[in-house]
Design goal:
The protein is mostly helical and 404 residues long. 74% of the residues lie in helices and 0% in strands.
Length: 404
Amino acid sequence: MFPQIAIFTAAVFLLLLYSGGWELPLVGENADEAGSAILRVAYLPAYAAGFGLIALDPRNSFRASIRQPFLFALIGIVCLSTFWSIAPDVTTRRAFAVTCTTLGGVALAARFRWRELAEVFAAAFAVLIVASYVVCIAVPRIGVMTELFPGAWRGLWREKNGLGGMMAFGFCIVSAAALLNPQRAKMWWGFAALAVGLVLMSTSKTSLVSLMLGVAALGFVLIARRGPAAGTAATWTAVTGFGLLIAFVVLASDVFFAILGKDATLTGRTKIWSAALVEIQERPWLGFGYHAIWGDKSGWGPFAWISKNAGFQAQHAHNSWLEQWLGMGLFGMAAWGLFYIQTMTLALIAVFRDRGALLAFPFLVVYSLVALTESIAVAYNDFRWVLFVALAVKLAFPDRELER
């Protein structure tokens, strides 16, 4: 019994470190060089926990990883990009970090069955949910925004969209834990309600849309699993609804942006995308090196040109697809695309065959939406990337393979 509890605790500890929920209370909003050094060192225990979980079951870790060949092709390109990076030292350091982050996701997928994995994820979110309420109510100088969007809750993150986006994912995860573990369903549904409360208190409309999409995806899985007729009806309804949504966005974009509280540039994102596409033409095949652009302060590199053309300095491309193209060229973006397509295909198949789809499908749907406006794919020290990798590998290495 004790070893299982220790392994569960180590897995939750790994996820909590990657969540970044401790960064704001520890180093504040603007980390200087000393703060950045602390952050880099603070992730080392998460790397150690991931390697430890792999060491406890290396055979299944290997069996699970080889079922996602595009993932490791992608990580291979990340590491190789050091040789053509405009900042080899930065790329080397961050390639190591993203490799360790990715292996943490693989370790989780290889170690736990679906219902156990759901509770590992949910336990981490439960801690973040409770801590966010505590910091917002008891320490509002940290948890509540005062300058931009005064009164909006940001919890443990630097701004309100961080809290709202994380809790939209959290609702999907905790709801799946309730459905996959009926004996503790009441507890998990309570945390799901608390997650919804945090999304609302963040006042982030984008996060609210993500939450609604997650609810719809969860409902789709529940209906589709009732039988062939229900599955067919749910599929056609989902396809029709998606088509109508696309038509609404195209034909009534002004209304759509007004609902989201955004302008036509998506708060400057389209300017970043246009500027990034200009720089991509310089190195379309290999890119500038994994995450090498955004730390370049030379004043003459691609970061300077993107900032000049966009009109402000961005911290990333605000699009997961452009981010891969910038850093690793067409080869890197193709590897990411193939990994993503394989994962989503397996998730759609699982909807009709595996209860694990209750955990994977809603999360992946919301992730796909967020990836269009945020650089969350192939991201080092990132909670969402760990969860994505874990679910992608688990879809390829289901419970029956773990038990074999």
